[in-house]
């Protein structure tokens, strides 16, 4: 232990050394899951609580994950042919419509 390197990373504990700046404060209280952000943790905790805050604005089906609700909404989109199933705005590019659907979805979760 004579080696006085300026490195702040400890050689021991390989896994801990990888995340010296971020302590696992987004740890799930129900299991060992550690999220990268508070948003991810909230998403994850819904798996335990069964909470489904994302509702399809078309058919009012509810989802625990935003990704799932978006995927579901693209199903409506496929049926309505390049038109937003909620407000009937037309989009030529699927990417743009996805962005638009995302807006519908996030508006429900803005609280
Ligand atoms: Zn968990
Ligand atoms: Zn729906
Ligand atoms: Zn719309």
From TrEMBL:
| This protein's GO CC annotations | nucleus
Principal subcellular localisation of the protein: nucleus
| Annotated Gene3D superfamilies | Classic Zinc Finger (3.30.160.60)
Top-level taxonomic group: Eukaryota
What GO annotations for molecular function exist for this entry? zinc ion binding
List the Pfam families hit by this protein, alphabetically: zf-C2H2 (PF00096), zf-H2C2_2 (PF13465)
Q: State the UniProt keywords alphabetically.
A: Metal-binding, Nucleus, Repeat, Transcription, Transcription regulation, Zinc, Zinc-finger
Domain (C2H2-type) spans 26-53, 54-81
Subcellular location per the Swiss-Prot or TrEMBL entry: Nucleus
Q: Which residues form a coiled coil?
A: none
Tell me what this protein is called: C2H2-type domain-containing protein
């Amino acid at each position: 232990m004579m080696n006085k390197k300026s490195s702040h990373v400890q050689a021991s504990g390989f896994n801990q050394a990888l995340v010296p700046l971020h302590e696992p404060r987004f740890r799930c209280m129900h299991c060992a899951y550690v999220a990268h952000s508070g948003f991810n943790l909230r998403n994850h905790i819904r798996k335990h609580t069964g909470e489904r805050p994302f509702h399809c604005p078309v058919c009012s089906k509810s989802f625990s994950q935003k990704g799932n609700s978006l995927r579901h909404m693209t199903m409506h989109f496929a049926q309505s042919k390049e038109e937003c199933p909620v407000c009937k705005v037309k989009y030529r590019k699927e990417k743009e419509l996805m962005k638009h659907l995302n807006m519908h979805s996030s508006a429900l979760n803005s609280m």
